[in-house]
């Protein structure tokens, strides 16, 4: 097997997600090797020049097969929008794999970033000997200027057993994104329902901050997030960095009660969703605890501009996060706003149960949407 620094890589679909995780490639092969060992494709002509200049690689417009033949990559980072993926697999990838077989060259490994189709679909089209892994990375790799490793999150799904060396190399490439969680093929889309609704916490916290400001008592989203993170850690017994709620900047009792119940409702909504889809309990609690703490940590540290940029970076048009945000604004946002406006007169118990149910419903909606992404 090649040294990591000698790897050749082609990115199919250089969008926001690939730009966000591009440092993983840089750290693997070295910046000095980029221009002759990495290339990419895009259909975004207006942004092509910027991508080439920022990343330091050749970016080819609308010609996946040409990019593949030019680089003959060891690894393909396959990242088109999910609804385009099947067509590209059946055409350009199948043509390229046939070309490689005729040349008696080594087949590339495929790191597939669309959550669907699963690895079995690639094998059906490209051959049972192709190595495909579905990877779902959280695009945030740095919080407050500090690189993540132990706290980051990504999932990987193998359709079948991989060679030990290939699997170890994948883990090395993504080690700065955290330990990683291994999922079975039928767990990817159900997990997305929970993951997306935990990412939507950025919308939740900014809604709360904006609504409180409208009431004439502004309080920063960072303070709100810090409090909610501490509350969540009480619930799941975090063994990492923890805060004593009493030490956080003073928050008035009515708002404190609101935040307690908003946090608990979100947590319980995701937990109940996992139960309803019969997701493995231990794995579901690991995902819920890790991602809720991670998302609230981002919100606690970063300013509003960075939070908004993270959302834009992750929200592919027509994708799962866009669906989650839509569900939030349609069915949840008004519940939060009304509860804040009515503080402290509103019925906390009834409000909390309603919110928890809406969170679970939204997670199901995202899951169902995820099942349709690749057509």
Q: How does this structure look, described?
A:
The protein is an alpha/beta fold. It has 2 domains: 4-182, 3-Layer(aba) Sandwich (Rossmann fold), CATH 3.40.50; 194-370, no CATH class. The chain contains 15 helices and 10 strands. It has helices at 16-29, 34-37, 48-55, 64-71, 85-102, 119-126, 164-173, 188-199, 201-214, 221-236, 253-276, 281-301, 304-314, 320-341, 348-370; strands at 9-12, 38-42, 58-61, 75-78, 109-112, 131-137, 142-143, 146-147, 154-158, 181-182. Strand 7 (142-143) and strand 8 form a beta hairpin. The model has no long low-confidence stretch (mean pLDDT 90).
Topology:
Layout: E1 9-12, H1 16-29, H2 34-37, E2 38-42, H3 48-55, E3 58-61, H4 64-71, E4 75-78, H5 85-102, E5 109-112, H6 119-126, E6 131-137, E7 142-143, E8 146-147, E9 154-158, H7 164-173, E10 181-182, H8 188-199, H9 201-214, H10 221-236, H11 253-276, H12 281-301, H13 304-314, H14 320-341, H15 348-370
Parallel strand pairs: 1-2, 1-4, 2-3, 4-5, 5-6, 9-10
Antiparallel strand pairs: 6-9, 7-8
Helix pairs in contact: 4-5, 5-6, 8-11, 8-12, 8-14, 8-15, 9-14, 10-11, 10-12, 11-12, 11-15, 14-15
